[in-house]
Write a structure and sequence with these properties.
The complex is a heterotrimer of chains A (about 290), B (about 475) and C (about 300).
Chain A lengths: L1 H4 L3 H32 L15 H4 L7 H8 L3 H32 L5 H12 L3 H14 L6 H9 L2 H13 L2 H9 L4 H9 L4 H17 L2 H6 L8 H6 L10 H27 L10
Helix pairs in contact in A: 2-15, 4-15, 5-8, 5-9, 5-12, 6-9, 9-12, 10-11, 12-15
Chain B lengths: L15 H24 L28 E8 L4 H17 L3 E8 L1 H14 L5 E5 L3 H6 L12 H6 L2 H7 E2 L2 E2 L2 E2 L5 E6 H6 L17 H14 L8 E3 L13 H9 L8 H8 L15 H15 L17 E7 L1 H9 L5 E4 L9 E2 L3 E5 L6 H11 L2 H11 L7 H6 L8 H11 E2 L7 H16 L4 H16 L4
Parallel strand pairs in B: 1-2, 1-3, 8-9, 11-13
Antiparallel strand pairs in B: 3-12, 4-5, 6-12, 7-9, 7-10
Helix pairs in contact in B: 9-17, 17-18
Chain C lengths: L1 H20 L1 H33 L2 E4 L2 E7 L3 H8 L1 H33 L5 H9 L6 H11 L6 H8 L14 H26 L3 H9 L4 H12 L1 H16 L3 H6 L11 H11 L3 H25 L7
Antiparallel strand pairs in C: 1-2
Helix pairs in contact in C: 2-14, 4-8, 4-11, 8-11, 11-14, 13-14
The chains are: A mainly alpha (about 290), B alpha/beta (about 475), C mainly alpha (about 300).
Protein name (chain C): ABC-type sugar transport system permease subunit
Pfam family, one (chain C): BPD_transp_1
Keywords (chain C): Cell membrane, Membrane, Sugar transport, Transmembrane, Transmembrane helix, Transport
Chain lengths: ~290, ~475, ~300
Amino acid sequence: MALSSAATPGERVRRRLGSLVLLAVTVVFFFPYLWMLASSLKPTADVFKYGFPLSWKTFLPPHPTLENYATIFSEFGFGRNLLNSLIVVVCQVVLTLVVCAGAGFVFGRFRFRGSRVLFGLVMVASFIPFEVVMVPMYVVTRELRLTDTYAGLFLPWVANAIGIFLIRQSVQEVPRSLDEAAAIDGASTWRTFVQIILPNLRPALLTVGLISAVAGWNQFLWPLIAVQDPDKQVVQVAIATFTDPGQLPTWGELFAAASVAALPLLIIFLFLQRYYIRGVVTSGMKG
Amino acid sequence: MHPSHQPPSHRPAITRRRFLGALGALGTAGAVGAAATACGSAAPVAAPIALPDGLWPYTGPALTKQRITLRVLRQQFPIKVQDQYFTKLFAQFTAAYPNLRIEDQTVPFGELSQKAQLAIAGGSPPDIILTFGDFMPEYVANNAAVPLDDLIARDFIEDIVTPTRTLHSHDGKLYAMPWEQQILAHFYNADVFAKYRVEAPPVSDDPADAWTWERTRDAWRELEEAQRGDDRRLWSLAPSIMGPGGPGSSYWFEGIFLRSAGDKSGTESERRTFEAVSADGTTARGYVDTPEAAAGMEYYQSLFTDRLTPRAGLPNAWYDGRAASFINADTTALRAQQLKVKFRWAVAPVPTGKTQFSHGSGAGFFVASASKHVPEAAALLAFLHNDANRMTWHSEVRGTLPARKSLFERLPRYRQHPYKLMLNTLEKCAYPPPATPGALSYQYVLNSAIKDIALGAAPAERLTRAATKLDTLLARYR
Amino acid sequence: MTTQALRTDAVRRRTASTAVRAPRSHKLTLGILLAPACAGLAIFQLGPLVYALLNSLRQVSLLDLTRSKYVGLANYAELLQDMTFWHSMGNTLLYVVGKLAVQVPLAFALAVLLDRKLRGTALARAALFAPLVTSGAVIAVIWNLMYFPDTGLFNAIIDWSGLPTQPFLTSSAQALPAILLVGIWEDIGFSVLIFLAGLQAVPASVYEAAELDGVRGFRLARFVTLPLLRRTTMVVTFMATVFSFRVFTPIFVMTQGGPDNATNNAVYFMYQQAFQFSNLGYASAVGVTVIILVAGLLAIQARLLRTDLEY
């Protein structure tokens, strides 16, 4: 980059300072994880023993063990829960992208009778708290015979109002001249959507995919209600079974399970974010 | 139980295409697997193997010959053998009645109530639901449970210990089978009391030997003062580990600070304090906001202001040796043995106020009124609760108190300390939680009042607010 | 300019004629694209909302839906007088405003910093995003333990540095800010992410021009970058608002709305009504009221940000 190579001494100091701030951010945000990870390596009896006063034992396990990890997989079948979550999330993300991209395109490009009302309803849906509609949603899902199925876990979230909103925003930023050029070539609406608009929506699609993946992976209350079959239960509900204070929670195992559950998404995320940040957007495209 | 799968491993160098391909493949594999499970449930019916003790205490009509599924919703028990116990019994039952299939669903205890409510609201709840006995009156008042009197033997019902039978009954009819019984005792770390030369509470099997709450607090204060200047300080009293933990997490435990300040044969106000709710269960004013109850809460508050007990849930505090005393359910004894705690511990009777008080209640299974297979559900419950199966549960699997008198006689450990103390506490000072059709509301409202008081709210004023709030909530049932 | 206008005009005429020729296929395409979203929202969101609306006019127990009673607007009348509800609504607003005030500017600053590609960027980015992929319940459990009064991890650190320990979640003054901090820690990565995506779209030529004019540092961010990111800022604000209104898990796990209702927010209040007091009718009335209030607030927000968000 031309700018950074011409670094003046003042610029260098500023960059140092910037790095220092980033270091502080890293520490603040990783701190609870460090503690969680350290706790997952302690036997349950030791997890809270060394909390106060502060000592190295608070953070580093004095008697490290992988026992907690072994237990959650061998005794609690956590592998099965991970697989279930993975299936649900993959289906949820793919379908969400398909459904939201279509709707976002229509709302971003076309006016028709009732389109404003329809979009208004989408906006209303975006801020319905789940707790308001939990009971009727359960009834609907049961009527559709979707309880105890993977579909029951992802279908209700596939029409994601926030996703539609984000994609619509993004569609509006694609210059109209592109569609018009396509129209001159006689392209159908469908082809315009697939060949012209979609490729320009990649950052928005990634964002929506990410929201949907995170929401799907972290959902707790819904699978707790909608799934009876233990073989179909997902990770977050499985984790909750380790946190029952009245039953002397198995804290070491809880932290092990939480660490494992955070890992798959973190990996996908670290993998995608490079792609995300590295300028997918063609420069000069902004309208 | 669960087939174990290894988590998908990621090779170090993955291209995006290969990565997405792998995800897609996993998704497909999952869908195919799901389809396979869905089709594979039709197993051939084997010849029945009779149950050793028959269906006693079931007295209802003959069971159906049709193929049906009984669904069970229960809490997940903390130790694996306890969950396996159910699996084993269910297998035995279905071997005797091959046309009855059992679907056993477990949820964490904290989530049980919400899940049960939603299942009932959704219209097709499981046939059999486990609930904490305290909430049984609410299920009964809302027609969610089936009376069991015509289906279960009379002598079985009369054998149930009084507090639990009261709790599980309404208008003389039994609505839930008594799974187990819980009462309170004072567990303490004998090493700590010895180390700081503080007189320890009396080890006895007679609840009448209990210290008063004031006397107990004096000992806790002495402990606190003796430790001044120590680097690693112990709490005198461990916080509640029930529910979310800490103050306000369990009326079952903390409610005793209100009710033990009352007296069932005392003045009008003392009697009401003891009863904690009006006879019809719909009025709380004048019962939970009496001067006696406020005094009980002042006592409870002082435990926090004197820094004798922490203001939030501290997991495992007593077992880890970070708290000297623990007022907790009888299961603590067995748990301490299982965990091989690293100190000498002893058990004293629960301290006494004007009344010596412990809430006697426990979990119970009821048959949902929406169930289409009531006799079969009751028969399964009868089988789970027969003498042989209950004895195994209480003596080998979980170690909680039984909820039937005859079982105590057959368990030798109830003739020895500390279990004899538990039995005596149950017989002499255990009372059912307030029976109100708004049982859930009652406990939630009081829990939050107790929490606020523990954290500094003025007891009398806060209790009045809670009582007023409760009366508006309970008005629906008048 | 003129050629451009001419071309657009030509296109317009052309499209108009194609629209006449093939309106059916065009309409069909739009229908197919729109249908799944509409069906999904209608079945799983708006339908249930209508059901909640109907419930809000009845007295219904969660445990016995069959025994409900039509009460008209009685639930709403009760709601208007329920001080705890308005208190919880106030807490919700406080939380939303506090969160927006901290999270949006901080996220912008962090995004600008991360965009510089300094040393340590990759690690900081991973750290910021890690909370996003961690279960909300686990986050709440961990923070709860760190916030523990007297002897929690934070107090261990405070005590080690010789300061007096703090009550955090057990004090009505500190509880809401403590919950707010968890919320910001948990969500800010997402705002940073959207800002970063927005920054990608700012052409390098803009920065080059600014450099030539000697505009840099804070002034560059404030007077050049920020105005270019107005749309992005709007999206970030909108999403942060929606998520903040719905905050539930940390309250549920850490404070149960206490102490003394200090952290009771609208959603938690509604949850209490439905699942603790099994008062489904009243809970539905709360839900509907909250949705109306949020819609109003978002409309005001859109007006204030003067964007072209259309309802």
